[in-house]
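Supplementary notes for students who missed Thursday's class. We covered one full example, reproduced here. Read the sequence, then the structure, then the short commentary at the end.
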Amino acid sequence: MSDRASGVVARSTPRPRNRPHGETSGEASRRTPARTFLRAADGVRVDAAYRPSVAGGDPSDLVFVVAHGFTGHVDAPHVKRIAGVFARHGAVVTFSFRGHGASGGRSTVGDREVLDLAAAVEWARGFGHARVVTVGFSMGGSVVLRHAALYGPDTAARTDAVVSVSAPARWYYRGTAPMRRLHWMVTRPEGRLVGRYGFRTRIHHRAWDPEPLSPVAAVPRIAPTPLLLVHGDRDGYFPLDHPRMLARAAGDHGELWLEPGMGHAEHASDDALLDRIGVWAVSRAG
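Structure (token representation):
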């Protein structure tokens, strides 16, 4: 995939049949849950869900688009929990990356998944939200970084703030036992069988060609969009040199939160941390 992606196509936003007098269709649709299949630029079907905000007042201009980690999906309990916490601060779009859950295609472990995220962001904007915040975990954390670098301010798939949790800084890292197991699952035929039948994740057998833009190379291209990097000091997958490398690449436009006692990605992100991320997003997006 080239460094500049475009042409994302998604189904039109569902419209409610009735709405209060004076309320626009976008305002009405923001109050209604929705579930559909989107279509990414390369034709892959992406299972996606929209959850209205439960916050007091009217935070309807903000929507979070959540990019899950490897082997996650839209119906996973940890993804639903994250959506529930973010719904206190705005609306939420969750989706399953290609090869995960009910979505089509096969996982490319962070490469073409940027097209899936772009389709989800366009769909989120179709509900009339003025501000979009992308939040990614682990593999999804690398995808939100590349997405923000590749989709500029003049595209419908642009984002207004980026949060990357437990992301790698560079590709092919095998320095920890969990990452060696993950590489076995991705690169070996027997590993891909484990992924398919053990984790409901269909993994593409082809190697990257060309190699996608790395997270650390993507980060400088994100400015001036606000960027938050979150990483646990007990992350068993990616040690602290990864977030520090990303933070150095971000320079003054990025923030780094090193969380004491936190492990890896969604399962290690408690509700208090997610609430803090929500508050940061409301204050920084747009």
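Commentary. The chain has one domain: 25-284. Confidence is low (pLDDT under 50) at residues 1-25. If anything here is unclear, bring it to office hours.
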